[in-house]
Write a structure and sequence with these properties.
alpha+beta; 3 domains; four-stranded antiparallel beta sheet; elongated; phosphoprotein; SAP_domain_ribonucleoprotein; SAP domain-containing protein
C-alpha cells in the first residue's frame, strides 16, 4: 500500500494473506496468525482467538502461510531489521538447500520430505551472489545420497529490511512448500566430520587455574624452574589469550607411498615403533598472557607471604597425527615457551606416542587436556542426531564415562542459532571432584563455537564407591593437593575445508599387524639381557666382573643366592663406561653398587643399601624382554625417530653424555621412579634414557621412555632453561 491510511474491513477482506502480512510488517505489527487475526490487528482490534484445529489431516493455505511466517521469523532472527550491515557482507552470503523426498506407499498421506544440509544448514547460509538464474543440479560430492540442491539468486541487502527476507523465503517455498512445512520444526544437530583445511580461531577468557598443595605445585615448579622455585602451598593463575585449531591439508609430497597418491590431504607420520602411517594432522596453537599469584617460602618454611608475577607469556604449538583407518592418535608433538615477568625464557618440547602405556596417568590425560582444546564434535558424538532433551543415559549404545544432555536451541548474538550441550564425567564426579564442560554447537562447525570448562581434581574427594582408578594406582599417580580449572573459549572466526578426511580408508602403505615389531624375547638370568656391540662394558661384562672381582660384596652375595638386578643404568661420566646397578635378594634386602670399567677389570666406585622392604623380590613376575642391544639399535635409528636422534646420537653410537637404563617394576612403588610410564603395573620393564648439557648459557635436558617388552616408544621430552 502506498498510503499509510488503513482500508476498511471489506477492503482488507478482499486482499490476500501475503498482502496483509506485508501491511502488518510495514506498520511494525506481528505478522503471524490467520487472515481474520491480521485484519483485526490492522484495524487496531485485539487478536481474534484461534479457531479449533480441523479434524482433517490436510493442510490449507493458512497453514502454509503460518509455516512461511515461522520460516521468515527464524531466518530474520539472526540479523534484526534495524541492523545495517555493509553491502559487501550481504553479497557474500550463501543459501543452499538440499531437499530429499521420501516416497510414501499410500497416496492419501502427504509425502514426508527431509531437508539435509549439503555444506551447512540453509537457515544460516545467506544468499549466493550470482548473475545466473536459479539452477537445480545433482551434487556430485554427495552422490551416495539421493539429493537435489537448489541455488537461489542473490538479493542485495538481504538483512537490511524485511522485504528481501520474505522474497527469499517465498522463492524457496515455491519450490517445496510442503517440504518446509514438515521440516521447519525439525530442530536437531548432527556433528560434521572433519575436513582437510578446517580452521578455527578462538579467544580464551574468564580462565583461572588454582593449585593447592605443595606436592602438586612441585610438579609445575620443577617444569618451569626457576620461575616458581620459591612458590609453595598455593598458586593461582589468571589466563587470557587467543588460539587456533586446524586440520592441515597435506600435499603430494606428504605421502610417501606411490599407490596412496589418491588420498591427497593426508600426511605421512611415524608411530611409536617408527613405522609410517597416513594420518590427519591437527595443529593447535595458543598465545596466552598469565598472571601468577601464590605463597612463597621464607627461610625454607612455606609462609603466607604473598607473591605476584604479572604479565607472563606462554606460547605453544601442539601437533597431533591420527591414523586415518583406525582414527587412533599415533603421536603428539607439543612445544611450549614460557616467558616470565623478568624476561626469563623456558622452553619445553614433549613428544607422546599415545597414552596406553601411561596407566592411570593415561586415563587422566584426555580429561586434563580438554580445557585448552576445542572438542572435536564428530569424534565425541559420532553420527548421533541430537535434539532438545536428548541424554546419553537414554542411548543404550553410549559406553563412555563422559555423559551429556542437550538443551533447547537458542539464538546467540555472536553465533546465531546454537544448541547448548552439558558434558560431565560421571566417575570423576563421584570420585575425584568434578569435570563439567558446557558447549554450544552450530551446524556445519566441527568444533564448538563456545566451550566452558569447570574441572576439579583432588584425590581427597575419593569415596568408598570410587572405581574410576584402582586405589593404589590413584595414590601413586596423583600428588597431594587439588587442581581447579575454569575456562571459557569462544570462536572468533572459522573456515571450512573442502575435502573430507579419509577416515576408515585402507591404504597401500599401512603397516601390517605386527609388522616391524620385534618378537625375539629372552628370559632373564641375573639381569636383563644386554649383548651390546655398540657400548663398551655391556651388562654381562659388568656382572661377570662383579662376581669375579668383588664376590664378597652384598650385591654379589645377593645375586649368588637367587637375587637379580632390577634396575641398571649405563653412563660415561668420566668418559670410562660404568654401571649403576640396583639389586634385590630373595629375603627382600636390597641395595646398589657402581662399577667402572678399568682395562680388563672393573673398579668399585660406591655401594649402599636401601631400607628393608623398600623393594620386593618377585622373580616370578619378571617378564621376558628384548635385549638392551636390540632396543638401543632401534632408539638410535635416524629414520625411526628423526626428531629425537640429534639429541642422543654421536656417529651411530650414544652421545657421551647419555645415560641408558632399564627398570623392572614388580610392585606399585609410590615414589617418583615408580610412576614412570610402564612402571605402575606388576611385572613390567621400562627402558629410559637421559642427557643433560649446557649450550649458549642454557641448561638442556633430554629424556625418553620405551617399553622393553615391545620396543614401543612411549614418550620423550626436551627442556631448555636459563642456566643457574
Amino acid at each position: 500500500m502506498a498510503s499509510d491510511e488503513t482500508p476498511d474491513r471489506d477492503t482488507l477482506s478482499s486482499m490476500k494473506v501475503s498482502e496483509l502480512r506485508q501491511m502488518c510488517s510495514e506498520r511494525s505489527l506481528l505478522v503471524s496468525g490467520k487472515k481474520d487475526e491480521l485484519i483485526s490487528r490492522l484495524l487496531g482490534s485485539p487478536d481474534a482467538p484461534e479457531s479449533a484445529p480441523a479434524a482433517s489431516t490436510s493442510r490449507g493455505p493458512e497453514d502454509i502461510d503460518d509455516a512461511i511466517d515461522r520460516l521468515i521469523a527464524r531466518v530474520s532472527s539472526e540479523a534484526p531489521a534495524e541492523e545495517e550491515p555493509e553491502e559487501e557482507e550481504a553479497e557474500e552470503e550463501v543459501l543452499e538447500a538440499e531437499i530429499v523426498v521420501e516416497e510414501e506407499p499410500e497416496p492419501e498421506i502427504p509425502e514426508t520430505v527431509v531437508l539435509e544440509p549439503e555444506e551447512e544448514d540453509p537457515w544460516f547460509s545467506g544468499v549466493i551472489p550470482s548473475e545466473e538464474p536459479p539452477q537445480m543440479f545433482l551434487d556430485d560430492e554427495d552422490a551416495e545420497e539421493p539429493s537435489l540442491v537448489i541455488t537461489v539468486p542473490s538479493f542485495s541487502g538481504l538483512k537490511a529490511n524485511w522485504k528481501p527476507i520474505s522474497t527469499v523465503a517465498v522463492v524457496i517455498l515455491l519450490v517445496g512448500a510442503i517440504a518446509f512445512y514438515f521440516v521447519q520444526q525439525d530442530h536437531s544437530f548432527t556433528a560434521r566430520p572433519l575436513r582437510y583445511g578446517d580452521h578455527m580461531d578462538f579467544t580464551i577468557t574468564k580462565t583461572t587455574v588454582s593449585i593447592t598443595g605443595d606436592e602438586m605445585i612441585g610438579y609445575l615448579r620443577d617444569a618451569v624452574s626457576p620461575t616458581l622455585d620459591e612458590v609453595c602451598g598455593e598458586l593461582h593463575a589468571g589466563v587470557t589469550g587467543t588460539g587456533s585449531i586446524s586440520i592441515r591439508k597435506g600435499g603430494p609430497g606428504d605421502i610417501t607411498h606411490g599407490l596412496d597418491s589418491d588420498l591427497e590431504g593426508a600426511v605421512s607420520a611415524r608411530d611409536a615403533y617408527g613405522r609410517e602411517h597416513l594420518t590427519a594432522e591437527q595443529i593447535l596453537t595458543h598465545d596466552l598472557s598469565i598472571d601468577l599469584e601464590g605463597k612463597v617460602r621464607n627461610d625454607g618454611v612455606c609462609s603466607n607471604t604473598g607473591w605476584i608475577r604479572e604479565d607472563n607469556g606462554l606460547t605453544s604449538t601442539s601437533k597431533s597425527w591420527r591414523e586415518i583407518t583406525g582414527k587412533t592418535t599415533i603421536r603428539t608433538d607439543s612445544q611450549v615457551s614460557f616467558t616470565d615477568s623478568d624476561g626469563q625464557l623456558s622452553d619445553v618440547r614433549a613428544v607422546i606416542y599415545g597414552t596406553e602405556d601411561f596407566g592411570v596417568l593415561g586415563d587422566l590425560a584426555p580429561i586434563l587436556t580438554f580445557p585448552l582444546t576445542p572438542i572435536e564434535l564428530h569424534d565425541f558424538f559420532g553420527d548421533e542426531s541430537l535434539e532438545e532433551g536428548d541424554k546419553s543415559n537414554d542411548d543404550i549404545n553410549w559406553q563412555s564415562d563422559w555423559r551429556w544432555q542437550v538443551g533447547g536451541e537458542i539464538n546467540t548474538a555472536a553465533h546465531g542459532l546454537v544448541y547448548p550441550i552439558t558434558i560431565f564425567h560421571f566417575e570423576i564426579g563421584r570420585c575425584l571432584g568434578h569435570a563439567v564442560i558446557d558447549i554450544q554447537v552450530k551446524r556445519g562447525n566441527p568444533w564448538p563455537v563456545k566451550q566452558e570448562v569447570d574441572i576439579l581434581i583432588d584425590k581427597d574427594e575419593q569415596t568408598s564407591d570410587c572405581n574410576f582408578f584402582v586405589s593404589a594406582g590413584t595414590q601413586a599417580a596423583l600428588p597431594e593437593g587439588s587442581l581447579r580449572v575454569i575456562m571459557e573459549m569462544t570462536e572468533t572466526s572459522s573456515n571450512a575445508g573442502s575435502t573430507p578426511v579419509h577416515w576408515g580408508t585402507a591404504y597401500a602403505g599401512s603397516p601390517g599387524v605386527g609388522e616391524d615389531v620385534p618378537t625375539d624375547k629372552r628370559q632373564w638370568g641375573l639381569a636383563m639381557p644386554d649383548e651390546s656391540e655398540l657400548r663398551m662394558f655391556d651388562l654381562e661384562e659388568a656382572v661377570q666382573c662383579l662376581m669375579a672381582n668383588h664376590s664378597t660384596r652384598d650385591a654379589a652375595l645377593a645375586l649368588d643366592s637367587g637375587g637379580y638386578i632390577w634396575q641398571a643404568a649405563w653412563s660415561q661420566p668420566t668418559r670410562s663406561p660404568e654401571w649403576n646397578m640396583s639389586w634385590v635378594s630373595d629375603d627382600d634386602s636390597s641395595g646398589w653398587i657402581i662399577l667402572r670399567s678399568q682395562g680388563s677389570s672393573c673398579s668399585l666406585i660406591a655401594e649402599g643399601d636401601f631400607e628393608d622392604g623398600e623393594f620386593k623380590w618377585n622373580r616370578g613376575a619378571v617378564p621376558e624382554t628384548l635385549t638392551l642391544e636390540l632396543l638401543e639399535t632401534r632408539i638410535l635409528s635416524e629414520t625411526r625417530y628423526p626428531e629425537l636422534n640429534p639429541f642422543i646420537d654421536s656417529g651411530d653410537n650414544w652421545d657421551v653424555d647419555v645415560t641408558y637404563a632399564y627398570r623392572l617394576s614388580v610392585s606399585e612403588e609410590s615414589e617418583l621412579l615408580g610412576m614412570l610410564p610402564g612402571g605402575l603395573g606388576e611385572g613390567q620393564v621400562t627402558i629410559a634414557g637421559s642427557r643433560t648439557w649446557e649450550d649458549s648459557g642454557r641448561d638442556n635436558a633430554l629424556s625418553f621412555v620405551m617399553n622393553a617388552e615391545t620396543s614401543r616408544m612411549v614418550a620423550w621430552y626436551h627442556t631448555s632453561l636459563p642456566a643457574d
